[in-house]
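User: Please fill in residues for this 736-position structure.
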């Protein structure tokens, strides 16, 4: 019996709601209310000059050749080395794989994100106007030397293709010129990108202030009244101005926060309560996360401090920090309440209060950075705050936090919001999926919200839970409220396809690609549907559109390679697989696909190298395991092939191809009892499988069960597959 190749079929993950809820009919940011940040310096030159020296003022800028730092950095886990190189005034990042024969890749670095006080990240702007984070950072504590970016210290990191979202830009820069409705699609920065957080982040929209100052005879009171001075706010509201960026309960899957449905990404105005714009969430009390310490936890930790809680409103962020300048002497702030403490017996005669009571600690999420702990407390004897850490990686829904997601205090919610948003928080990162789905569906039924985003979250949660048919109904409800709501339109087509509603899926996806021709994921889903229906030319055309819109979409390249193989275009398939490997050198499906092609050409050594990369870096990828098993079997290395085929079956027991392959391998080693058992399992999955019936009949014949052999070979002889029919008929004639 011929061993068959398993076609690669990349699965597209459903986009989950992260920090920013999906929205479409949001209130616009009204860009005309914002002034050009450069106009501030005309009237406030001294403040503008000192502010430019602060971390906020230096948070984002264009890269130059002078940003090239250090020698090449080698990352053993992924087998790659990186080097920053300045050339002709520009900055480039070069990547070289350590394995023999691999080609180097170079991308220009267009922007630097971060002041450099702790770290600098490097960004590439693609021709499609996406900002892509580079895999290495320059860290201050390492003398500016390179090390992996946060989340990258693993074999299968994002390399040069992790997109910077609007939520990243919200806290790391000023106000880019994007439509607030653009949050429904991929983050694209096709307008001018500002350089650095500007005055309006804390003082609110400034155009009215500029206009008032420009009027002849304008009074100072009127000019001041046209702009916010945060000092005029209550103490808690003053802290909220800082908290918009310096409050993150966690950067690990939870979720940390949800922007309200009706709000745009950049619509927060510091004159309003922060909870009117964004709602924060935390781990449940007693869940073992009370002392977490992460990179953006300043406000979170400060609110836990006894000094803060008992200060009666005297202690705020600006007690110690002047946002307009770099302030070094913090002891004066402590002396306001603890002026005579150093004269007391037993207290060390030392001026730097923070060195003991607010020590620098290594953060849990950015392991090459140590920042000040704002939870002011007594010194902890023997604490090793700066000890080296290993990076923690959490898989959403499996190794991430599983439990109740709590509304972060001091926020309170009532009415519809008090039911809907906490329910969304349970499902957005799969922390409390089963309970959350029930809560969210009940809240939607009770309050019947008008925004489509609520229904989208419910649909995504149902789809994640494997309830595709139910998810279809909620996607439709979202579209009833906004027929042009891209996330629901795209995901509806995907859900309908998984639910077997192929005609409906086609209508949804064709509408999505027509209304949003630049959405790569809609094209990719349409390609998957076309391929499923055997329309290979249409599938290739659709996946090429996905690649045109988003060249970094690795799954699209691998899918194109597999489609072209089925279309008997090996040259095109090889080109597509190589394109995938340029973006993601460890990609299981591209490595396995290329390995299979090379094996078919007799280039066994090269094929083995690609298969080994696929198996080593992607131990849980079914296609990689299956294809490696086929490759080994074709070399008659049956014992090794069985190891990989068994793993494929273990990973996906319902995979008929894997079950059939394992049966074939047992048969090849004349382990007829194991082969028969495997073929029976394949028939249980698909009672009409002619290949499995043929295999079982053959195995039973070898075991001298002639009646059983006749039964299953007779069924196989009726198979639609001409090859199976012929082989079964021949074997039937050989049975006495």
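Assistant: Residues filled in for all 736 positions:
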């Amino acid at each position: 019996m011929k061993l068959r190749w398993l076609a690669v079929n990349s699965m597209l993950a459903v986009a989950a709601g992260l920090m920013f809820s999906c929205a479409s009919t949001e209130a616009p940011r009204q860009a005309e209310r914002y002034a050009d940040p450069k106009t501030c310096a005309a009237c406030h030159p001294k403040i503008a000059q000192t502010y430019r020296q602060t971390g906020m003022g230096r948070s984002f800028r264009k890269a130059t050749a002078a940003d090239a730092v250090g020698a090449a950095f080698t990352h053993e886990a992924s087998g790659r080395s990186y080097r920053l190189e300045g050339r002709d005034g520009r900055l480039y990042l070069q990547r070289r794989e350590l394995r023999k024969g691999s080609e180097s890749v170079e991308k220009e670095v267009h922007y630097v994100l971060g002041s450099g006080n702790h770290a600098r990240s490097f960004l590439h702007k693609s021709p499609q106007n996406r900002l892509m984070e580079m895999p290495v950072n320059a860290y201050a504590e390492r003398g500016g030397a390179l090390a992996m970016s946060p989340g990258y210290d693993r074999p299968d990191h994002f390399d040069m293709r992790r997109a910077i979202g609007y939520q990243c830009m919200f806290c790391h820069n000023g106000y880019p010129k994007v439509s607030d409705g653009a949050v429904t699609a991929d983050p694209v920065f096709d307008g001018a990108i500002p350089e650095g957080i500007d005055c309006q982040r804390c003082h609110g929209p400034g155009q009215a202030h500029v206009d008032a100052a420009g009027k002849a005879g304008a009074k100072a009171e009127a000019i001041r009244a046209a702009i916010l001075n945060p000092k005029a706010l209550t103490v808690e509201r003053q802290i909220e101005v800082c908290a918009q960026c310096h409050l993150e309960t966690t950067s690990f899957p939870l979720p940390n926060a949800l922007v309200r449905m009706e709000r745009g990404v950049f619509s927060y105005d510091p004159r309003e309560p922060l909870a009117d714009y964004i709602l924060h969430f935390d781990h449940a009390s007693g869940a073992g996360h009370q002392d977490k310490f992460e990179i953006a936890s300043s406000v979170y930790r400060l609110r836990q401090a006894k000094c803060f809680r008992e200060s009666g409103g005297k202690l705020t962020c600006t007690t110690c920090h002047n946002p307009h300048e770099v302030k070094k002497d913090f002891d004066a702030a402590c002396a306001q309440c603890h002026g005579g403490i150093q004269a007391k017996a037993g207290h060390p005669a030392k001026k730097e209060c923070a060195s003991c009571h607010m020590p620098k600690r290594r953060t849990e999420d950015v392991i090459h950075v140590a920042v000040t702990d704002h939870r002011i407390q007594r010194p902890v004897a023997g604490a090793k705050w700066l000890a080296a850490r290993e990076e923690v990686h959490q898989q959403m829904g499996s190794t991430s936090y599983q439990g109740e997601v709590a509304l972060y205090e001091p926020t309170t919610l009532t009415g519809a919001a008090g039911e809907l948003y906490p329910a969304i928080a349970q499902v957005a990162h799969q922390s409390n999926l089963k309970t959350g789905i029930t809560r969210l569906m009940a809240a939607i039924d009770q309050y019947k919200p008008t925004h489509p985003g609520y229904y989208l979250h419910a649909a995504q949660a149902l789809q994640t839970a494997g309830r595709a048919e139910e998810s279809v109904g909620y996607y439709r409800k979202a579209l009833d409220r906004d027929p042009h709501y891209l996330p629901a339109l795209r995901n509806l087509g995907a859900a309908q396809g998984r639910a077997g509603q192929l005609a409906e899926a086609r209508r949804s996806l064709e509408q999505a690609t027509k209304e949003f021709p630049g959405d790569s994921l809609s094209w990719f889903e349409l390609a998957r549907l076309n391929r499923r229906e055997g329309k290979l030319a249409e599938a290739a055309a659709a996946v090429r559109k996905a690649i045109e819109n988003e060249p970094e979409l690795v799954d699209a390249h691998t899918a194109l390679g597999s489609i072209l193989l089925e279309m008997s275009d090996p040259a095109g398939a090889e080109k597509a697989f190589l394109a995938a490997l340029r973006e993601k050198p460890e990609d299981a499906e591209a490595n396995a696909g290329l390995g299979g092609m090379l094996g078919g050409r007799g280039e066994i050594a090269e094929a083995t190298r690609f298969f080994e990369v696929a198996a080593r870096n992607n131990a849980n990828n079914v296609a990689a395991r299956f294809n490696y098993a086929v490759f080994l079997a074709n070399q008659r290395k049956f014992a090794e092939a069985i190891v990989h085929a068994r793993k494929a079956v273990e990973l996906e027991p319902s995979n008929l191809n894997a079950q059939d392959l394992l049966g074939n391998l047992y048969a090849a080693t004349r382990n007829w009892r194991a082969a028969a058992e495997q073929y029976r399992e394949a028939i249980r999955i698909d009672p009409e499988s002619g290949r499995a019936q043929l295999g079982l009949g053959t195995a039973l014949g070898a075991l001298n069960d002639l009646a059983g052999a006749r039964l299953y070979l007779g069924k196989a002889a009726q198979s639609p597959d001409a090859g199976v029919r012929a082989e079964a008929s021949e074997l039937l004639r050989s049975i006495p």
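For context: Residues 1-29, 180-184 have pLDDT under 50 and may be disordered.
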